Amino acid sequence: QKEVEQDPGPLSVPEGAIVSLNCTYSNSAFQYFMWYRQYSRKGPELLMYTYSSGNKEDGRFTAQVDKSSKYISLFIRDSQPSDSATYLCAMRETSGSRLTFGEGTQLTVNP
Amino acid sequence: GAVVSQHPSWVICKSGTSVKIECRSLDFQATTMFWYRQFPKQSLMLMATSNEGSKATYEQGVEKDKFLINHASLTLSTLTVTSAHPEDSSFYICSASSPRQIRGNTIYFGEGSWLTVV
């Protein structure tokens, strides 16, 4: 079993839709949770970084962490064609340790 | 703007030659940098952890003599692909962990480097 499971998609939605991206994990030692966006042929770009359970909002993006269920989500409101990319969840145990990634979800927002 | 810079963005080299890729943290000192390899439509595969002033820690299955990593300063790590072969063609990405007091101890990635070995 993988430490981090992420629905690979692909996911296709119309412009303006609310998008929900999810990851589950099995390692209870994970304490730091991140979401990255990766456009084709580019390096990952940090979108959200959370530590505690609960919600964190930044513009159209909301990151949700539920440590008791070992479940994290990224919500995108009012999705735009420019949001079309691969989204990677990532997590790590301590502040200096390596990241463990999900497989990535490919999102397409259709105009 | 970018906080981690990677160079070159793409490179084509002949089989048997060596190629060096640089990774720089632009506005913080990074004691730890990471090197990844990514194949099309796949997630990132960690190759090695680069620690400033010490030897890199390689993941299982990664040839340390093939992929030389040097972290000579707190802002620069280099990956050298030695005696490159076509199967080494891939997207190589570095990342750096920022200190807690700067940018909240998060990990930032470079733009990636496309290597094509012909």
Structure characterization notes:
The complex is a heterodimer of chains A (111) and B (118). Chain A is built from no helices and eleven strands. Chain A is mainly β and 111 residues long. In chain A, strands 2, 4, 5, 9, 10 and 11 form a six-stranded mixed beta sheet that branches. In chain A, strands 1-3-8-7-6 form a five-stranded antiparallel beta sheet, with no helix packed on it. The termini of chain A are far apart. In chain A, 32% of the residues are buried. With 118 residues, chain B is mainly β. Chain B contains no helices and eleven strands. In chain B, strands 2, 4, 5, 6, 9, 10 and 11 form a seven-stranded mixed beta sheet that branches. In chain B, a hairpin with a 2-residue loop joins strand 7 and strand 8 (76-81). Chain B is globular and about 40 Å long. Chain B starts with a strand and ends with a strand. The chains are: A mainly beta (111), B mainly beta (118). Chain A binds chain B through residues 34, 36, 41-46, 49, 88, 90, 92, 95-96, 98-99, 101-104, 106, and chain B through 4, 6, 32, 34, 41-44, 46, 49, 91, 93, 95, 97, 100, 104-112, 114.
Main features:
heterodimer, A: 111 residues, mainly beta, 6-stranded mixed β-sheet, 5-stranded antiparallel β-sheet, B: 118 residues, 7-stranded mixed β-sheet, 4-stranded antiparallel β-sheet, globular
Summarize this, please?
The complex is a heterodimer of chains A (111) and B (118). With 111 residues, chain A is an all-beta fold.
